[in-house]
Amino acid sequence: MVEKTGHLLIVDDNKVNRILMTRSVEMLGHRASVAHNGKVAMQMLAEDDYDVLLLDIEMPEMDGFQVLEALKGDPTLRDLPVIVTSSVEGLENVVRCIELGAEDYIAKPVNKVLLQARLNSSLERKQLYDEQKRLLGRFATEEVAQDLQASGFAIGGSRITATVLFCDIRDFTALSEPMPPEATIELLNTYYTLMFEAVTSHGGIVNLMVGDGLMALFGAPQPVDNSAQSAISAAQEMSRMIDMLNEERTALGEKRLKVGFGVATGEVVAGYAGTQTRATYTCIGKTVNLAARLEAHTKIVDRAILFDAETRQNLSASADCEQLEEALFKGFSELTEVFSIRN
Amino acid sequence: MTKDIIDPTVFEELCAAMGEDFARELAATFLDDAENMFAELKGSVKNQDADTYRRAAHSIKSNAQTFGAITLSERARDIELSGEIDGAAVDVLRATFDQTATALTGLLNG
């Protein structure tokens, strides 16, 4: 078996133990950093990447139990393997460490052979976690990846109140026809980069991209304070970015992009749809259809951003909104109130 | 030198596992750092600070185990688990440490 080596963080308030542990792991080919209490360790974990934590329990400022609790509550650190190395008394304390998520427990003075075996298995586990995370990251947004890691994977949805945003480049086909394919892809990439940035910076996720269209969700899987406000702010920001992009395009003698946004708030069914081997986080429901209809309606009324009454109610009273004529949308039996916001 | 003050085989094993120079340096660090731990222990008796009292005793116990100082580790453990602050026990521990330090120094020079 090939021995794995890693970057370890040794947390111990006792100088002799720190020196001894550092030497022990360095002799096994690992790289070590040290922290003299839990508080310092948490700061170091926030600033740098480590493969395994070797944690003492009895420490001033922040003890090992508190460190384990803090790690458990942090999605980015939850999977970091922790080996508790301590001479703390009482079996109940060992049990408590394991319950709090420690991978393993080694009593002090630490036996080197035992340490080597435990480190190898922890490093292997860390590698698996990292690989899993990398794969998840490639196929899902960070929020969905975290939701998956926290709750496990299950096909099926739940009813939640969220805000759905649709946006689309108007007449993209006509616009791209005279362009070489490379230029079309480049334009789409620029557009998507801007859209992604605006959506994620307002707490939303992009969960569908088709051609030049994009669907984003606010309020699921991660809750946001006011999903309607977040979605409208994101749309306004995107609109401003498109304006900036257009200034560049005009200077280069290229046609301006026109982008429409439709926003609707209400109940959706959100969750993982697909099969066990290939699934996406998505949402469906009347709210989704309404957002899509509103987006299409922007062309007819010549407004950049349109939204429904439910979204309007959740915006501040001082928001510069305009109520437009009610519209009868396909798939909806009644007239729908339509609002727009001045940029 | 009684075996309970310092078990020489523990130190020999430490030398074999970690290298003799390193083991010697570590022993020197232990003797040096113990002064800080006793200072904490005495301070905690004065301030009636049970947390620091327990933690300092725990550290002395842990290091005593590393060097095979059996009596020192047992007395420190008693203090760690006693649950009450006892100045006299600290004095006894200090005397045990002094004996341990003499024995360990003898081992380093022997």
Estimate the helix proportion of chain B, in percent: over 70%
Radius of gyration of chain A: 26 Å
Number of domain modules of chain B: 1
Category from helices, strands and their pairing of chain B: mainly alpha
Output mean pLDDT of chain B.
93
Radius of gyration of chain B: 14 Å
Strand proportion of chain A, as a percent range, falls in 25-35%
Query: What share of residues are in beta strands of chain B?
Result: under 5%
Instruction: Identify the CATH class of chain B.
Output: Mainly Alpha
Task: Tell me what the structure shows.
The complex is a heterodimer of chains A (343) and B (110). Chain A is α/β, with parallel strands linked by helices and 343 residues long. Chain A has two domains: 7-139, Rossmann fold (3-Layer(aba) Sandwich), CATH 3.40.50.2300; 153-341, Alpha-Beta Plaits, CATH 3.30.70. Chain A contains eleven helices and 13 strands. Chain A has helices spanning 15-27, 38-47, 64-72, 91-99, 112-139, 142-151, 172-176, 181-201, 227-251, 286-301, 309-313; strands spanning 7-11, 31-35, 52-55, 82-86, 104-107, 156-169, 204-210, 213-218, 259-274, 279-284, 305-307, 321-327, 336-341. In chain A, strands 6, 7, 8, 9, 10, 11, 12 and 13 form an eight-stranded mixed beta sheet that branches. Chain A has a five-stranded parallel beta sheet with strand order 2-1-3-4-5, sandwiched between helices. The radius of gyration of chain A is 26 Å and the shape is elongated. Chain B has a single domain, classed as Four Helix Bundle (Hemerythrin (Met), subunit A). Chain B is 84% helix and 0% strand. In chain B, helix 3 (50-66) packs antiparallel against helix 4 (70-82). Chain B is elongated and about 40 Å long.
